[in-house]
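can u do me a favor
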């Protein structure tokens, strides 16, 4: 049996088991073990597990696993928590560059305590009425509703995630309500977790980009997004359906630490 020190971090309630794997010995292929660690009754309990490893050219590499133990795509809140963790482990300064599933990201530990994370450019969005499909490092279906509180996120999200179009590889599903002040509220059903999470960083980003289309916004844009777990901000530049200079900003905090035995 091997032992590993871990920390648990959360960003707007999206929580992760974090492991610093300097010698690349953590068993990242042990899907059942990772799933058990993330189990909220029989493990630490988390929406995912993140392994941080050294990188030859960047500050570190982030390897993200969904709570079902499978290797995941980009996770925005996980990325911000990884930066906080790496900074506290002295792997990086207040400005950092690291590699994730969708490529290289830059991030800043802000003076107000938040983490500002660069996200991948988006150049293609499918639009069908009040629904959208796009990839912000992870695939996202976005639908506008009158009230997110009155939406059965799990039932409707699962139906979309497992429909004929998305069943093979899955998609995250976001339900968005807009407010007169220009902000939005988002609730998300996440694939891999197969349930609603308190927040989803790539989902918040996707919803903000779609909101600029709904509101006919152009140029440099800033949108505040409320989730069940807290508030985030998305900054980006929009020209047509091309979105660049995207940044996701919000809190990332350590919850506790301990020892894993695998």
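np, heres the sequence
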């Amino acid at each position: 049996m091997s032992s590993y020190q871990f920390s648990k971090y959360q960003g707007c309630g999206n929580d992760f088991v974090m492991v610093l794997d300097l010698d690349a010995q953590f068993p990242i292929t042990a899907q059942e073990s990772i799933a058990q660690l993330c189990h909220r009754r029989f493990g630490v309990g988390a929406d995912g597990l993140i392994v941080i490893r050294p990188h030859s050219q960047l500050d570190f590499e982030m390897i993200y696993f969904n709570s079902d133990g499978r290797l995941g795509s980009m996770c925005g809140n996980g990325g911000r928590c990884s930066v906080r963790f790496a900074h506290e482990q002295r792997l990086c300064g207040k400005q950092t560059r690291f590699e994730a599933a969708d490529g290289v990201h830059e991030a800043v530990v802000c003076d107000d305590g938040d983490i500002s994370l660069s996200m991948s450019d988006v150049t293609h969005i499918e639009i069908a009425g009040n629904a959208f499909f796009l990839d912000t490092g992870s695939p996202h279906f976005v639908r506008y509703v009158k009230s997110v509180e009155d939406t059965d996120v799990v039932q409707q999200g699962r139906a979309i995630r497992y429909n004929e179009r998305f069943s093979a590889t899955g998609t995250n599903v976001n339900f968005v309500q807009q407010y007169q002040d220009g902000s939005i509220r988002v609730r998300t059903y996440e694939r891999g977790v197969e349930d609603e999470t308190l927040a989803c960083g790539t989902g918040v980003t996707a919803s903000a980009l779609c909101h600029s289309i709904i509101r006919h916004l152009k140029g440099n844009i800033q949108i505040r997004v409320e989730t069940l777990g807290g508030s985030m901000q998305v900054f980006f530049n929009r020209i047509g359906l091309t979105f660049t200079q995207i940044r996701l900003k919000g809190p990332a905090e350590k919850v506790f630490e301990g020892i894993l035995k695998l």
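The two ends are 5 Å apart (CA to CA). hope that helps!!
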